[in-house]
Amino acid sequence: MTPQTTASGQHLLSAAHIIRAGGVIAYPTETVYGLGCDPFDEDAVRRLLAIKQRPVEKGLILVASDLDQLDGLVHLDDAQRERLRQAWPAPVTYLLDATERVPAWIRGVHPKVAVRVSAHPLARALAAAVGTPIVSTSANRAGRPPGRNRFQVGKALGGDLDFIVTGDCDPRGKPSTIIDLQSGRTLRD
């Protein structure tokens, strides 16, 4: 199944405006709905973590519209940059060396940051509309199954969210693979 772009342009612009204003939203990714906010807004990130019931120490994933949107946030040599250009967009998250611009509330206790250029057209379009990468963590409370559609997310978390983007996820999909780019080690397959 290929994710459908079912959100209108205005719907996506509303979601981007809410993120820029400090809101927390849910949006479709390749496999499940994600919770998102502005990664540089500490209050928004802490609110997202409270909704999810996730400790800040674990760190969070950032989803970008393209590789260039990560400039200044990660350290990449030319070979690593080319490898990522060939790998993305895809449901593959890479751990990359973070610059000092990546806040501690995103990295957690880690020196690296988890980043992805999503293969889902709405997730990429949302990051492009916001103008920065956005937080991406599964739309669920810790220990509960992630929401795979708007209805599930609304039922479980709707009262805590500022907006839910309408769109499809692949119901057969698995969470993104996580690979440490430097070592090549797969942390989640």
From TrEMBL:
<dbReference type="InterPro" id="IPR023535">
    <property type="entry name" value="TC-AMP_synthase"/>
</dbReference>
<dbReference type="Pfam" id="PF01300">
    <property type="entry name" value="Sua5_yciO_yrdC"/>
</dbReference>
<dbReference type="InterPro" id="IPR006070">
    <property type="entry name" value="Sua5-like_dom"/>
</dbReference>
<keyword id="KW-0808">Transferase</keyword>
<keyword id="KW-0067">ATP-binding</keyword>
<protein>
    <recommendedName>
        <fullName>Threonylcarbamoyl-AMP synthase</fullName>
        <ecNumber>2.7.7.87</ecNumber>
    </recommendedName>
</protein>
<keyword id="KW-0819">tRNA processing</keyword>
<keyword id="KW-0548">Nucleotidyltransferase</keyword>
<keyword id="KW-0547">Nucleotide-binding</keyword>
<comment type="similarity">
    <text>Belongs to the SUA5 family. TsaC subfamily.</text>
</comment>
<feature type="domain" description="YrdC-like">
    <location>
        <begin position="9"/>
        <end position="189"/>
    </location>
</feature>
<keyword id="KW-0963">Cytoplasm</keyword>
<comment type="function">
    <text>Required for the formation of a threonylcarbamoyl group on adenosine at position 37 (t(6)A37) in tRNAs that read codons beginning with adenine. Catalyzes the conversion of L-threonine, HCO(3)(-)/CO(2) and ATP to give threonylcarbamoyl-AMP (TC-AMP) as the acyladenylate intermediate, with the release of diphosphate.</text>
</comment>
<dbReference type="InterPro" id="IPR017945">
    <property type="entry name" value="DHBP_synth_RibB-like_a/b_dom"/>
</dbReference>
<dbReference type="InterPro" id="IPR050156">
    <property type="entry name" value="TC-AMP_synthase_SUA5"/>
</dbReference>
